[in-house]
């Protein structure tokens, strides 16, 4: 027993220490890549000379003025992104480029396929850059659409004010609270009630409501990239990303206060999909206890490995392998094309196959619950 405890402590200590080292490496890597001079726009417009004047970058081709360059940043679905704007001498955008992003690859590809970026050339620098006003979002990539619009506004307005003394419109930052946000809030409240009072019927109602709303309609399942964003400090504005705050921050608060994992128990749309598949097949194989004892540790290992890569790279989406978004949109990359069918086939024969043996989100929440229990037990011992 003592040897097992010592072994467990050593493994946990190594895992925690390695993550701290990875975080330090990622944060201390201050080497900046010259994104601007190596950008597509510089090559396309044959810009070979730039100079800084009054806080702006002026671009030349030989001795001929091409225009003004500025970069803007904002928070997207996966974390920070940077947009470069090239404007002419008349106050219009020549072209724009997404210089850096940590978005899910499928979302950026969707924007390109839907010609989202074609909206920016010829826009006036002091336009509003507002989604549903003078910028059209792409369905299924609304958060990324809005983030790029905000970054483009920051860059464009910088040129407008520094180089043209243009008046800038008062757009404000209002709360994005529509039907979807209302439905997610309602689902979360009902899921909390179902979890707290162990109401099975209400739990199934919230799970399959989430399957439709959070899964198919807005495709906003919590993934490891959400948790990584929080660790890295890439926290989105609550006014524009209320669903993120309700699902992730709301669940973390309930775990902290009550030790209950509302999301995995009564909300996760992929969990609902697995339940549905298992009910359809009517099969529920039991894995041998000796094998199950080792497989059940897989999510923790995958969580550690994924976080290690994410913290070193400072890219929240780099190692997020879950097939959640792909399941509801059929847009995925790389290993997701293998994990999704494997998960679905496994769910036909083993209840909650992915949740038990692969999910890093569930592993994260279970780890937090375990930490909370240990802290409470220590407090009881000290006060006992």
From TrEMBL:
Domain of life (superkingdom): Bacteria
Boundaries of every FMN-binding domain copy: 76-159
GO molecular function annotations of the record: FMN binding
InterPro entries: 4Fe4S_Fe-S-bd (IPR017896), FMN-bd (IPR007329)
Keyword line: Membrane, Transmembrane, Transmembrane helix
Transmembrane segments: 177-197, 204-222, 242-259, 301-318, 338-359
Keyword Magnesium carried by entry: no
Keyword Oxidoreductase assigned: no
GO annotations of cellular component type: membrane
Matches recorded under Pfam families: Fer4_5 (PF12801), FMN_bind (PF04205)
Name of the protein this chain belongs to: FMN-binding domain-containing protein
């Amino acid at each position: 027993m003592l040897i097992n405890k010592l072994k467990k402590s050593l493994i946990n200590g190594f895992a925690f220490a390695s993550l701290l080292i990875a975080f330090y490496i990622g944060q201390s890597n201050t080497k900046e890549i010259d994104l601007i001079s190596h950008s597509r726009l510089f090559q396309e417009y044959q810009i070979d000379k730039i100079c800084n004047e009054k806080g702006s970058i002026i671009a030349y081709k030989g001795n001929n003025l091409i225009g003004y360059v500025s970069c803007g940043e904002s928070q997207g679905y996966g974390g920070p992104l940077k947009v470069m704007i090239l404007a002419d001498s008349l106050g219009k955008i020549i072209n724009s480029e997404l210089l850096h992003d940590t978005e899910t690859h499928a979302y950026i590809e969707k924007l390109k396929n839907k010609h989202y970026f074609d909206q920016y050339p010829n826009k006036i620098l002091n336009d509003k850059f507002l989604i549903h006003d003078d910028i059209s979002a792409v369905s299924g990539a609304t958060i990324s659409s809005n983030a790029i619009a905000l970054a483009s506004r920051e860059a464009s307005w910088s040129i407008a004010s520094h180089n043209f003394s243009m008046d800038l419109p008062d757009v404000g930052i209002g709360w994005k609270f529509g039907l979807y946000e209302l439905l997610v809030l309602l689902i979360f409240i009902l899921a909390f009630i179902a979890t707290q009072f162990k109401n099975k019927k209400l739990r199934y109602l919230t799970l399959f409501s989430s399957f439709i709303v959070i899964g198919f309609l807005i495709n906003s399942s919590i993934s490891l990239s959400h948790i990584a964003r929080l660790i890295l400090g890439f926290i989105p504005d609550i006014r524009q990303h209320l669903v993120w705050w309700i699902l992730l921050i709301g669940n973390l608060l309930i775990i902290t206060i009550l030790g209950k994992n509302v999301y995995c128990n009564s909300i996760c749309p992929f969990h609902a999909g697995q339940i549905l598949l298992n009910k359809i097949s009517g099969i529920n194989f039991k894995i041998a206890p000796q094998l199950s004892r080792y497989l059940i540790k897989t999510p923790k290992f995958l969580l550690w490995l994924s976080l290690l890569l994410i913290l070193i790279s400072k890219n929240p989406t780099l190692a997020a392998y879950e097939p959640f978004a792909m399941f509801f949109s059929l847009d995925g990359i790389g290993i997701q094309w293998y994990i999704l069918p494997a998960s679905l086939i496994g769910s036909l024969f083993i209840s909650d196959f992915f949740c038990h043996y692969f999910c890093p989100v569930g592993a994260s929440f279970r780890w937090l619950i375990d930490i909370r229990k240990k802290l409470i037990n220590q407090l009881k011992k000290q006060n006992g």
